[in-house]
Give the backbone structure.
Amino acid sequence: MTRYTHPRTSLVQFTAAIALLMLFVGHPAHAQGNGATIAIFGGTFINDALLLREDVLGVPFTLDTRLGKSAPIYPGEANGVPFYYVHMHGSSALQASWVALYDLGVKEVLGGATAGGINPAMQPYDFVVPHDFIDLNIDRPLSFPREIYRDPENIPLPRVLPAMDTDMRAILLAETRARLRGDRALDDISLHKAGVIVQARGGRFETAAEIRMFAQWGGDVVTMNVGTEIAYARMLGMNYACLIVISNPAEGVAPWDFAEMPPLYRRINPISVDILLASLPKIMALEGKQRVGDSLIFHPEMTSKPTEKK
């Protein structure tokens, strides 16, 4: 531990030095982050394609949060916009990674996944910018403890109508359309401008009976992680939208085989990265704009006490 013993060191200088030290000890993000307010949560829709992209990502770091150590976080920059990248949304350090992004000051999050197509119109290789979700998660924590919030007196019980940020969805739609329709070699890939995600519990593919049930509920695609991302982002006051790529028909909808997935990943993963990186400047330009989720995060105080008169 540093000792301040120089005879000319005043109490004011000593206090200032300690305050500066505590600033960095208490907030490691200041020491290791790049100041980004945008993050990308990876998944099978990009796999390792962003890690393989040259001159985009820097050296990863981890943060110690109130919920433990985060997954590795990569500082990155593309199109003049800094961002953070967390490689896989299924990490065992999932909640700690979200808290780390919160501590870093992230406000905008792009996510995504590959998914099974419940809706027969959504075929393998198609891109979907979903608008709503059904969450069947039973394993992951449903919320964050109060002590991780900057103001623990607030009650984080958010509404999810709409489930995702409308401005970011519009940007993803525009950039996906531009990427797909700008290359004639991609004319076989369709873009669906809305869809309902069903997040299954994971650990296995679904049964055909489950898929029939999901279809009756109004589900369009089935995946294993994105519903949790949507919920966590809203709980932490972050704006979120995601990109879904259909990797296979959902079970019972049509025949498919695991052998079909490797060529699909090799084709769609780089396209997904292109779309995400092209979206960054437009998302950065949203800074300061009032957003649809701003008033949907915290439940009002639960009390029957009369309002205090001013």
In short: The radius of gyration is 22 Å.
